[in-house]
Amino acid sequence: MTEKTYLVPDISCEHCVRAIQSELESIPGVKVLGIDIPTKIVSVRYDESVVEDQIVAGIEDAGYEIERAA
């Protein structure tokens, strides 16, 4: 399992959290560990069947951009 964090500057409310979490958890092998609104950090764990580009695409599909991987 791989754990990674992403800085997503546009996270501002619980709606943002639900949108990102729903999109990421629809990817088999991905578990959202937490989304912190004040720090704008998304923490995920994923197995070897997942390519990191899928995580990035999931966040973008939810309508948000990643500033950088933390």
Model description:
With 70 residues, the chain is α+β, with helices and mostly antiparallel strands. The chain has one domain (2-69): Alpha-Beta Plaits, CATH 3.30.70.100. The protein is 31% helix and 30% strand. The protein has 2 helices and 4 strands, in the order E-H-E-E-H-E. It has helices spanning 14-25, 52-61; strands at residues 2-7, 30-36, 41-46, 68-69. It has a 4-stranded antiparallel beta sheet, with helices on one face. Strand 2 (30-36) and strand 3 form a beta hairpin.
Q: What's this, in brief?
A:
With 70 residues, the protein is an alpha+beta fold.
Which helices and strands appear, and what pairs or packs with what?
Blueprint: E1 2-7, H1 14-25, E2 30-36, E3 41-46, H2 52-61, E4 68-69
Antiparallel strand pairs: 1-3, 1-4, 2-3
Question: Rg, please?
Answer: 11 Å
How many DSSP helices?
A: 2
Q: Which structural category do the helix and sheet elements fall into?
A: alpha+beta
Question: CATH first level: which class?
Answer: Alpha Beta
Return the CATH architecture: 2-Layer Sandwich
First-last Cα distance? 17 Å
> Based on CA inertia axes, which overall geometry fits?
globular
Tell me the strand percentage band. 25-35%
Number of domains: 1
What is the string of SSEs from the N terminus onward? EHEEHE
| Strand order, largest beta sheet | 2-3-1-4
Q: Averaging pLDDT over every residue, what do you get?
A: 94
The total strand number stands at 4
Low-confidence stretches: none
